[in-house]
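#dry-run=false #mode=assembly
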Amino acid sequence: MEKTINITLKIWRQKGPKAQGGFQTYKLDKVSTDCSFLEMLDILNEQLINKGEEPIAFDHDCREGICGMCSLYINGHPHGPDTQVTTCQLHMRKFKDGETITIEPWRSAGFPVIRDLMVDRGAYDKIIQAGGYVNVNTGGVPDANSTPISKIDADEAMDSASCIGCGACAAACKNGSAMLFVSAKVSQLALLPQGRVEAAARAKAMVAKMDEVGFGNCTNTRQCEAECPKGISISNIARLNREFLKATLKS
Amino acid sequence: MAELNAKIPAGPLAEKWTNYKAHQKLVNPSNKRRLDIIVVGTGLAGGSAAASLGELGFNVLNFCIQDSPRRAHSIAAQGGINAAKNYQNDGDSVYRLFYDTIKGGDYRAREANVHRLAEVSGSIIDQCVAQGVPFAREYGGLLDNRSFGGAQVSRTFYAKGQTGQQLLLGAYSALSRQVNKGNVKMFTRHEMLDVVIIDGRARGIIARNLITGKIERFSAHAVVIATGGYGNTFFLSTNAMASNGSAAIQCYHKGACFANPAFAQIHPTCVPQHGDFQSKLTLMSESLRNDGRIWVPKKKEDAEAIRAGKLKGADIKEEDRDYYLERRYPAFGNLVPRDVASRAAKERCDAGFGVNATGLAVFLDFSAAINRLGKDVVEARYGNLFQMYEKIVDENPYETPMMIYPAIHYTMGGLWVDYELMTNVQGLFAIGEANFSDHGANRLGASALMQGLADGYFILPYTIQNYLADQIQVPRFSTDLKEFNEAEKAVNDKITKLMNIKGKSSVDSLHKELGHIMWNYVGMGRTKEGLDIGLKKLAELKKKFWSDLFIPGDKNDFNTELDKALRLSDFIEIGELMALDSLSRNESCGGHFREEYQTPEGEALRDDEHYAYASCWKYAGADKTPEMIKEDLTYEFIHRQTRNYKS
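#status=ok
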């Protein structure tokens, strides 16, 4: 049955990339616990608009946990206290009556704040552009069944490919490292014969771009894995390191 | 009256596409570099088109409203993609995929386009595998298939319950490669606000930078619209929050016809609505119907007890359950097409057998599948969907039957295009869900991904050259031309007008009102009386929108309320078009069900004698009733039949 809770929200507000930001406090009463976290923010924004104020800016789109657009740092955790969900899949039943909830944007050198809770994740696109693909043109490819792929490899590639590119890994990392994101793409393609050919060169190009766009290094604290909404394993990072080493030895 | 020429190539059905390609005009590589193409949208259609056109050597400008092209809503497609590979040796063929798609669309799609779609379907799978898309495989290492509604063969390829995600990431990787090579220039967080026409040809767009609020101009030799569907007209739908139909409406205002707006698909398996604060409806993949059985209680008192919370689904004895799809449609059972399954659910709920607190839900039950296959197998097939359901509803579907109800999902209607995917405005193309061409009055499951990628990878990159071959002498356009000035001024005037209303209603509150009107009067069961009321209410809402809207903030800055208001003004217009089109079509077919036109058993009653056409609406000016132009759908190669999923 539906329950309601009263909450206090401490939300980061920042007018623009260079503006000074700060926390503002809002009270919200009688929030249904069946509400999703973003629907709770919709309710707050509706109240702000009705008072003539500007709503809180936050990224969101599919609201079913797959587009990777939502990106809130809630009570010290990317995507909040629930496990293996994105912010949009988080529900208010995970919070207590009377609780104070702190909401911040991703905090990472690679993700500059645009406004309030929105950040610029263009750096992730740049890393993929540096080599996160198989060099193949449209058409002129062999029949899909011409190369059998073991189910084990295909399933493992699928697990790596589940990454939604939300940036929670870098936001969770004390070094601001994007290694989990990079390694998931490197692993997916290295596990499949179609991507195997360029695996080492790909790893090298993507890591170089990752360093260039401002992400830190990995020191195996595993915070990324713990916070990843899609359960991407850090065994991907081990595979990335192997491919990177191969590329370094070759050159 | 204006005429529309579909430009269908002559010759036997199976040879049309081959003949077209053999005789079309091409652009040589050195000329391709001098030609600019704008592609609006980065979903399966837009992303694959931008990548493929970039590979060919065209200079591509690609736009999306999200922060990255990887976030287009194609990413949320779950179930799979059809292809006539016949890897299962179960009798599939290009012809059968073509036939199932035409029949599934209730004979309201264009024969030649659909056959071409079936022809290229196999190449899509080859392409995706070559890109590293991790499709599901059998232990022998070959690709696995499953079956979907409306088909009697297993031709659906899938990647867990995330097929759309994997296909989109494949297209995104190909696109990223072209961005790296400099062939595609990417404009994220940019929203198209108008198409610019010069001497009758599409030559550019006006776009708003959603971060800075700045209005920007872009010119090109051709413009491709790949902005998806208009399901969010209903406010609550399975679409993403920012999905909108505005690009299509802008083209419509500039003379492009909007075809079959009434044909909207209501998906049978969505998580039911739970409250007024709800922002969207979540789809549960149709693939669940492979193993899940749909039922409601046979006895009304049981249904009432469940609604009151006194009984649970699992408490109802086997003999007291009504597996109504298996009962009504023995041949297809739970795998009837979406429109049939949705209407059957509504019929049971309207008759008082619905099973959640609102009475608007039916059960989707996996207990038989868990007994037959074991929990492990069910988890391997549907685990991520079950997890998603549990996170939303807080119930465990392994133990309690899921509850589902139909919701707006996909729109078959869209910009009218000819065989070359060009609208009736020269140089203006529309691909994917944004066009109307392939799904008729109802789309079969796993066919949207197929169409989006077919258009983007294998059809548009050919057909657009037939147009551009005549444009190689045309120099790049300056964005200082008067046509750009006028288009930008019109956009600015509209924005200023919206900001100056300074009323009391928020965008979302008005959008919710629109959604209620659409669902109640232009929804699953339509009547003449209801549509008349709907049109009246839409006119009132339009008045309220233009007199009572309130947008906070500044027009020359980041402003999400302004973004949404611009979209809502177009959704209201689309709502009117949908109602007008529904009113003009005195028959029931596919996703368009007029209650006056049904058989005694409650099945859709199509009228081929009078309505075997695509209704193409041509803009006549603000507050004027648009003109309807008919494109007759002649079936040269197959006979229309009443759809039968019973035997």
